[in-house]
Amino acid sequence: MYRVDDRHLLMVAGDRISAFDVVFDEPVPDKGRVLTAMTAWWSDWLGDIAPTHVISADPADFPSAARRPEWAGRALLVRRAEMLPIECIVRGYITGSAWKEYQRHGTMHDEPMPTGLAESQQLPEPVFTPSTKATDGHDVNISFDAASAIVGAETAAAARRLSVDMYSSAAAHAFERGIIIADTKFELGFVDGSLVVADEWLTPDSSRFWPKAQWKPGASPPSLDKQPVRDATEATGWNKEPPPPPLGDDVIASTRARYIEAYETLTGESFADWVSWSAVSAGENAS
Length: 287
Description:
Blueprint: E1 2-3, E2 8-12, E3 16-19, E4 22-27, H1 31-45, E5 54-56, E6 75-79, E7 82-83, E8 86-93, H2 96-105, E9 107-108, E10 111-112, E11 122-128, E12 131-132, H3 144-151, H4 153-176, E13 179-191, E14 194-198, E15 207-211, H5 227-234, H6 249-267, H7 271-284
Antiparallel strand pairs: 1-2, 2-6, 3-4, 5-6, 7-13, 8-11, 8-12, 8-13, 9-10, 13-14, 13-15
């Protein structure tokens, strides 16, 4: 994050990856470019549904000092936002930590759920399931009432409405493209008194993407996201505290391939074209 002025920032996405709130040492090549390309694409696509903090992904619009070739395709000029201290998660399918909680208590984020749900089953409707935004340690799943106590009832209701609307529209688009968005996380904040989407959204880092053709209730489908990193590191017996175990070359390569496949499938765009365009724009406008 780089300060441009009092109202603007430059966000540059790196290639390191995290899981269970721990950042791994090994980079995943092109990960930052995929996240930036997807965020920029979704920002345009969601324009009529939700305001975002994005101003431009074009290096031509950046301050001259920010037109660096090594940042090409991985930087966004954004408006500075006052961020909400909660994670705005929407679940359309029951999986991950929500499935584990349901198995133990029959609840999801402390809210009672229908009996007899199977792993990866689609929920009757998308559910807003917030969590804390820990500055140290792990985020904690919380109820809507707990989120309201943190940010206020009016803001929590607005965040829920905006998050569910974005998820529902994006999930419908993705389904037509052959991908299920099982769940996703949004970061929201205020810009000039209005609630906007900030950071990144609907990327493989912030979502679970499943190939529609390989999904069925009762099992965990393969993922076009960071799930291979979670699975591989959990299999080592790691306690999910720093330091993390090293990522193998096969995990890194398969994760990169999944990220690029997710971008190209959801957007219909070529990732190579994104890399080429951004490099040319950065080079032409370098000072």
